[in-house]
Structure formats: C-alpha cells, structure tokens
C-alpha cells in the first residue's frame, strides 16, 4: 500500500471521512477538523462547483469579543464559550465538563473503550482521528513540525511545543504546595508525590514501594537473591544421585 498516497487522499477530507470513518465531521477532534478546513477541495471539483464552494466559504458571523468571523452562527456560538468559560456538556460517568458536544462524544470513548479509527497499515485502533493521523507518520516517516531555533523536526505538534521550552525556559506547570515550577506536567505529577507521600510502584517480591518507577528498577531486592537461589538449587544436585532408602 502507498501510505503517502493514502495520506494525500485523506487530507482533503472526502475519502478519509466517507470511506474510512463514515463519521460526521462534527464529532471529529479539532486537530483533524483544522486539517480538513485548511485543504481546499478545488482539485476534486469542477470550475463552477469550486466557485460555488468558494462563495459558500464567506465568513458572515463576527465574534463581538475578539472580532473573529465564522461561516455559521452555530460555530460562532461554540466559539463564544471560549470567552465565557461556559462548559454545558458534562460526562455522566466522571463529571468532567466540556465546551462542545463533540468533545464530550470523544471523551466518552475513554469509558466505553470504543476505538473507531483504525490504521490501514498495521491495524492499530484509536479513539480520535487526530491520534490516527499522528500515528500514520510512523509509517511514512513524515515530521512536519520543525523547531524554529534548532531546526529539529517532530511528527507531533505537542512534542514540538514541549521541546520549545528547552529554548524559552518556560515552565508553565506550578506546584500548588511549594511553588516549584516545571516544564512538563508529568514532572510536576512526580514532584507532587514528595508532598503526598504517594508510592504507586511496588516490588513484587518484597512489596517495598517507590514514588518513581526508576527507583523500582534500581531497587536491589534481597528477596530476588533468595528467589534466584531457590530456582538454582535443583540444578546443583547431581542427576545421577538418587535418594537412598533405608
């Protein structure tokens, strides 16, 4: 299969949506929607159809707060919640709230285990189309996100954002208990265990607990030596010697 050709075909949103996902674009995540919107369909339309499509793209609805314009009023109303902070859609399972119904729809897959987006190359399934799009770059080797400082390239935008903090020194994650700042949320979560005393990693032999997985890996368990000795003991006996009965 020509994966690069597949991705090119999907970038205009038609083949990808109608033949692979059979999904309403409203329920697709923002990353993939942005990819679809950025690609004109003129290469698949006649001149008259392309002209009609272009006219339909006129943005008529303007946000009174930031002046951003939208083609449909419903899109404007969704956008306004960015300013108001309104999150009217809540998850019945965990109570998490969302600004858009589509975001709640995607979130619910965490509870249901549904993974409707499947890689046509390796068969791996995903909960979001954007995650599948990022995964496809593993097969193609594509790295479209480039660091403007050192030119290092990445296959995911989020990885580039984290990398840029190396250059900017930005540390957006702050410990609410001691004020220490971190460049990555994962490092903040590890740090918090100092305050909470949480030790989620435990040795299966001696049951000693650790706050970091790296500490568990470096753990010198005394039970491991005795376990290895017990396994080795039968091998030390001579196979030709049998127990004498008196």
Search tags:
246 residues, mainly alpha, Double Stranded RNA Binding Domain, two-stranded antiparallel sheet, 11 helices, 46% helix, 10% strand, disordered C terminus, metal-binding, RNA polymerase II cis-regulatory region sequence-specific DNA binding, DNA-binding, zinc-finger, transcription regulation
The SSE order reads: HHHHEEHEEHEEHEEHEEHEEHH
Biggest sheet features: 2 strands, antiparallel
Query: Radius of gyration from the CA trace?
Result: 27 Å
| CATH-defined topology of the domain at 115-169 | Double Stranded RNA Binding Domain
Distance between the termini: 74 Å
CATH architecture level-2 label of the domain at 115-169: 2-Layer Sandwich
| CATH homology superfamily name of the domain at 115-169 | Classic Zinc Finger
How would you describe this protein?
It is a single chain. By secondary structure, this protein is mainly alpha-helical. Among the domains are: 60-112, Classic Zinc Finger (Double Stranded RNA Binding Domain); 115-169, 2-Layer Sandwich (Double Stranded RNA Binding Domain), CATH 3.30.160; 173-218, Classic Zinc Finger (Double Stranded RNA Binding Domain, 2-Layer Sandwich), CATH 3.30.160.60. The protein has eleven helices and twelve strands. The chain has helices at 3-10, 14-21, 30-37, 47-56, 73-84, 101-112, 129-140, 157-168, 185-196, 213-217, 222-236, and strands at residues 61-62, 69-70, 89-90, 97-98, 117-118, 125-126, 145-146, 153-154, 173-174, 181-182, 201-202, 209-210. The strands form six sheets. Strands 1-2 form a two-stranded antiparallel sheet. Strands 3-4 form a two-stranded antiparallel sheet. The longest helix has 15 residues, at 222-236. The termini are far apart. The model is unreliable at 6-43, 235-239 and 241-246 (pLDDT under 50). It is found in: Nucleus. This is C2H2-type domain-containing protein. Residues 61-88, 89-116, 117-144, 145-172, 173-200, 201-230 form the C2H2-type domain. One of its GO terms (molecular function) is identical protein binding. It comes from Seriola dumerili (Greater amberjack).
């Amino acid at each position: 299969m020509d994966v690069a050709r597949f991705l090119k075909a999907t970038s205009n949103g038609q083949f990808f949506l109608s033949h692979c996902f059979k999904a309403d674009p409203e329920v697709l995540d923002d990353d993939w929607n942005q990819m679809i919107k950025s690609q004109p369909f003129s290469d698949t339309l006649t001149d008259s159809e392309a002209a009609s499509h272009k006219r339909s793209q006129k943005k008529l609805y303007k946000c009174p707060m930031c002046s951003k314009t939208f083609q449909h009023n419903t899109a404007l109303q969704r956008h306004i919640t960015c300013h108001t902070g309104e999150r009217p859609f809540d998850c019945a399972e965990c109570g998490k709230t969302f600004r858009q119904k589509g975001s709640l729809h995607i979130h619910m897959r965490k509870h249901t285990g549904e993974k409707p987006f499947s890689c046509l190359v390796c068969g791996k399934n995903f909960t979001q189309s954007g995650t599948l799009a990022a995964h496809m770059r593993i097969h193609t080797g594509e790295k479209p996100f480039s660091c403007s400082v050192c030119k290092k390239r990445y296959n995911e935008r989020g990885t580039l954002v984290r990398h840029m903090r190396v250059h900017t020194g930005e540390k957006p994650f702050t410990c609410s208990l001691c004020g220490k700042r971190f460049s990555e949320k994962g490092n903040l979560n590890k740090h918090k265990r100092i305050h909470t005393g949480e030790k989620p990693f435990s040795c299966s032999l001696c049951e000693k607990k650790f706050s970091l997985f790296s500490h568990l890996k470096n753990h010198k368990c005394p039970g491991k030596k005795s376990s290895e000795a017990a396994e080795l003991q039968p091998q030390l006996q001579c196979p030709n010697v049998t127990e004498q009965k008196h």
